[in-house]
Amino acid sequence: MADMKILAQRLIEGKADEVRKLTEAALKEGVPPSEILNKGLIAGMDVVGDRFRKNEIFVPEVLIAARAMKAGMEVLRPALVASGVRARGKIVMGTVKGDLHDIGKNLVSMMLEGAGFEVIDLGISVPAERFVEAAEENMADMVGMSALLTTTMLHMREVVEKLRDRTGGRVKAIVGGAPVSQSYADEIGADGYAPDATSAVELVKSILQANTA
Ligand code: B1M
To answer: Within this chain, do residues 54 and 156 fall inside the same structural domain, yes or no?
Structure first.
């Protein structure tokens, strides 16, 4: 019989193949997709996020767990869509123009997906206009920007300004990456800043919940 605790445990251990198989088996047994998502995959990812925050595990373990999460989500996504479980929100993510660093951005994206958000990942070196176009085309709730260079973080301001002009503040903007700080986020008028992937998830939840309240 499908056991969501075992599914969560395999995800924590980063066993992508087992997570995929257990998710398929649970669906076949008729476990509701929302239960597989919340009690299996997200529950596992929450533990990973918590351990990462406490420095009990590090980036490689998180990436491996996130890959297992992705494997489960690939199986679950069609069933979730069919059962009408809506994502918690839609976020366009990318590393800003001129910047090729994507390890942190990928980690943030995966953690957000793990927390039930839909992420549209534009990749690296994304021009300001592309962020705004993608937010409009996809009716996104938020744009997330990552920068690892002191020179490229300067492009974040342009994205924030364009977004505000074109969407009137409907689409929120958050920023992160090693050289970025809360004071820089405040200076450029971003809606939020997070120092790491776990706090990024908390930040997105709080901004989008406040938005719909
Ligand atoms: Co580059 N690099 N790099 N690099 N690189 C740094 C960033 C640097 C600090 C190294 C150093 O000099 N000590 C330095 C930047 C100096 C500065 O501007 N202050 C630097 C430099 C100078 C360069 C080049 C210019 C080197 C050269 O060619 N002369 C060049 C630039 C290329 C370019 O982008 N145009 C370059 C190239 C590269 C590689 C391609 C070799 C490679 C990137 C591979 C890749 O990403 N696919 C690379 C790497 C790996 C690094 C270091 C070593 C590691 C970065 C990393 O992945 N960290 C880095 C030094 C360091 O940080 N120790 C360095 C792990 C990752 C999980 O952390 O990305 O910080 P991080 O993400 C965190 C948080 O910041 C946050 O959450 C993540 C998870 O907790 N976060 C967000 C990130 N994005 C977020 C978004 C959010 C919220 C939170 O909301 C949207």
So the answer is: no
63 has pLDDT over 80: yes
Number of domains in the chain: 2
Residues 30-53 have a mean pLDDT of: 89
Q: Average model confidence (pLDDT) for the chain?
A: 92
Question: What does the alpha-carbon distance between residue 175 and residue 180 come to, in Å, rounded to a whole number?
Answer: 7
Torsion region of 30: left, alpha or beta (phi above 0 gives left; psi -120 to 50 gives alpha): left
- Ligand 1 atom with least separation from CA of 145: 91
Write out the residue range of the structural domain in which residue 119 sits: 90-212
Q: Give the distance (Å) from ligand 1 centre to CA of residue 210.
A: 31
CA atoms within 13 A on the CB side of 185: 21
Atom 70 of ligand 1 has which residue's CA nearest to it? 178
The model's pLDDT over 117-155, given as tens digits with 9 standing for 90+, comes to 999 999 999 999 999 999 999 999 999 999 999 999 999
The DSSP output letter for 126 is: B
The closest residue, in CA terms, to atom 11 on ligand 1 is 149
Domain end, chosen from 49, 83, 117, is at 83
pTM here is 0.83
CATH number (domain holding residue 32): 1.10.1240.10
* pLDDT value at 85 more than 70: no
Q: What is the CA radius of gyration of the chain?
A: 17
Please tell me the predicted confidence (pLDDT) of residue 213.
Answer: 54
